């Protein structure tokens, strides 16, 4: 029998193991699925600290960071929709949260000539 109040089980997409940096005995700034909150600070993941650590960790592999973030966006959309299908964040907000801050973002406004 399926419990209707149980949290959905995360799928087998990219494993959220980055950033790998740890400070002392504190947990890393990785996401806690399926809520996608930071394990270390409780903020929506990727938190500010995770973004800085990810940019440092992937500094020489920016395409890999973009691919990693896009894969996690896909997984987060699945998890978060199943947790809150009616009034959760929409695709644009999730894209901004997971991908838009990354290495290949476009400026908010096109430069004036």
From TrEMBL:
Region Disordered, residue ranges: 1-29
Protein name per UniProt: Flavin reductase domain protein, FMN-binding
């Amino acid at each position: 029998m399926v419990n209707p109040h149980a949290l959905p089980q995360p799928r087998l997409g990219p494993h959220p193991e980055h950033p790998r940096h740890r400070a002392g005995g504190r947990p890393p700034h990785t996401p806690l699925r399926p809520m996608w909150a930071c394990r270390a600070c409780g903020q929506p993941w990727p938190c500010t600290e995770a973004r800085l650590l990810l940019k440092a960790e992937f500094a020489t592999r920016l395409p890999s960071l973009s691919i990693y973030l896009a894969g996690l966006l896909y997984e987060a959309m699945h998890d978060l929709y199943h947790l809150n299908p009616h009034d959760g964040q929409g695709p644009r907000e999730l894209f901004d949260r997971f991908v838009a801050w990354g290495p290949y973002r476009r400026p908010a406004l096109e430069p004036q000539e």
